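Field: COMPLEX_INPUT
Field: COMPONENT_COUNT = two
Field: RESIDUE_TOTAL = 406
Field: MODE = joint
Values follow.
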Amino acid sequence: MSKLPPPQARPAAAYTAALLALGLIGLGVVGVQELLTRQDWVSGKPWLSTVIDNAQHATPASWALPAGIAAVVVGLMLLFAAVKPRRATHRRVPGTDDAWVSPAALATIAAVAARRTPGVVSADARHTRRRIQVSVQADADRQLDGMDQAVQRQVESQLEGLSDMPISVRSRQVTR
Amino acid sequence: MSRAPFRFDRFATGFVGLVLIAGGLLLIDWKQHIVRSDYPRRLQLGRLVEWSHSDWWPWATAAAGVVLALLGLYWLLAHLRRARVRSFTVPATGDGKGTGMLTVEAGPLESVVAQELIDHGPVTGANAKTVNSRRGRMELVTAPLDDRATGDTVRASYERLAGQIVDAFPGTGLQTRLVLDKPRRTRGRRSALGGPGVVTPAPAPRADLTKQPSDGSPERSVVPVSEQSG
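Field: COMPLEX_OUTPUT
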């Protein structure tokens, strides 16, 4: 069976890139504003030459340290976003080349299967990247140990061949 | 599946990150004199101040600004670009000599593939797209899974669908990817599952590769089973 890559979410760098692209457009606006104001086609002071005029007198005042630290922190975050691997959004259906199922779909199926277990009043399931957690509310007159095992069997039976994610079950009795 | 420029995104993000780190460290050292102490007291901008008061400066910044804005817009829109295929060619085998080419419109194919999965798979809907991926041309089928689906029903549906596509378009390298998402709760909508644990028997692939129209030209078509059996 070939090892094809799973469906993946957009990389974090795609979102930072969108911000950088907007930043480029913003720089473009600043450049054009310089021409419009210097030619008196619109009123106002030119932003770019004003910044340059003020910057030539700049000294390392009290703002320099926090600004420097902020720049380093943002830079590190961007560097992390640049190298962060893309997250797999789906898991392979065992025994198939290229069929994939999302953990959210597995959790929903697990919850529906758990609700079909005798004695279960309600059930909900959540998923992490590695496991499915099923929470059930059982009849007040049911033994919770047996209920856990019954739900576990029911859910495992339903998900057999669909996923190899571990399943954990937590039962509690309905309070009346 | 998109053709968004993720590699360039990573490069640009990393580059800007490094520039910010370098600039930030320089700013900290300018203030604190941790590494060097021979920085000028005031920021030296060289001839930039003089240039910024020249006549050509606003025209140059405007030209650079237009270029930067266009680049930013192009970069932004590149993330919306899809790798969708509108049509593709199939090596013709109708005359037994492999001459000629057939063109397949992706739209009708996608409709048939999606309907096929809806009719016979443990799903409550389906959407198919023909896309170019790094692995080649692919029929990307996404569908909300029926909440009574089992591994067997999913596997059978996938194998049936992938087999039909391979049978219908041999030699094209057209692959099938099935992506199943969270069940969608829609009132009155049923999947091919007849009830809990009951699976509609999956008929054999029904791709009709031999149909010859009256004019004798080769033709390929995938006919939905519902149409064939009805």
